[in-house]
Amino acid sequence: MTARISGLTCAVCAAQVPLSASFVWTCPNSSSTDPHHVLLFDDVNAASIPKSHSESLNPFMRYREQLAVDAFGEAIGLDSAARIAIIEELDDAIRRVCGSGFQMTPVRRADELSDVLNFSSRGGVWIKDETNNVAGSHKARHLFTELVYLVMTERAGIAPWSDAGSRPPLAIASCGNAAIAASTLARAVDWPIAVHVPVDAQKSVVATLSTLQADVRMCPRQKGDPAGDPCVLRFRELVQSGAIPFGVQGTENPWCLDGGRTLGWELLEQVNDIDRVFVQVGGGAFAATLTDSYVRPSLTQLHVVQTHGCAPLVRAWEMWKSHGYPDNVAQLWSHYMWPWETTPTSFADGILDDETYDWIPVLRGVHESGGSGVTASEDDVVRAYELAHLHTDIDVSPTGSAGLAGVLQIRDEVSSDDNVLVIFSGHSR
Please, what is the end-to-end C-alpha distance for the chain in angstroms? Predict the structure, then answer.
């Protein structure tokens, strides 16, 4: 039996939240005047070899007993059969909306790309392809455990609404893959969702959201708004009025950090001897969950990739490194992490979060693995996208190929015998 997660602890103030405490989205000490807190699971089976308790290719069934949400279901009185049924029913519902449910996604060496980048036969570029996952990216992994959590509370009779017709709306701030994934899952269970997007959101994304019957809310910056993303500000206002946070920021809902770990557990089963993993970073949940599930100190170096047009995490990394990696970095949040001062801009527009919300576990993962923060030039962001389309058969978006831009940026520092991993996530739109 896999060790069960017992609760959550704030990485900043050490406040503890029992696993069975339902509908606790943020640290109890978090407030409008002191928002810098984040709940993390007490035991995340960090980078352990996964235990497949099922032959299912659905990662949420395959790794069910390692998921925090399964432990939560048990804690609120649902037996194993009920917990399994919820995952299966939700996966079937998603399949009816988008034609496919959750499956393990492939990873392979990109031979042609490896040759172009002058890797030896011993090394090379390996690609984990998430573009055919539910809603076209890895984002649905994060959101699925949030949805399972909510449905579990309904089945256990502890949800604060009387029936499906009186459910409060879900809410998310996103302009791309996360918004589409959240709206896809919400549509599968007929749950209303408000999606907060910037005024310059891609028309194709907005059209997709409308097709999924999402309530799309444009969020211009208003006079008097504090620094930061106005979409996140409007999202938080709606949550304060009773909506359920349904996004991919652990600071707003820690359950998004649960499902994302299935990607890392898959990788541990699928590929050996990866020397470096390059991960594109916006809000940080993706890198945080890979840190918890895949990155192994002394075996795999974590390189987090941002762009010159918006790099708050790399800025924090460089500062922390220059200060000698003080242990109390989480308590010095505002000294290391604050909104990007200029308007974020890049061809990889899906990683332009003003702040890296889930930065604390990511910084520690980079340090412990001997990795680095990489600021990719805009030329390399464009070149990575072009190389992906010229030398692979994956129709990836500029955001999804941004990890490869990190490889290009520091290619001279990477041995030709190294095996490097990138995750392509998000279809070209």
Answer: 43
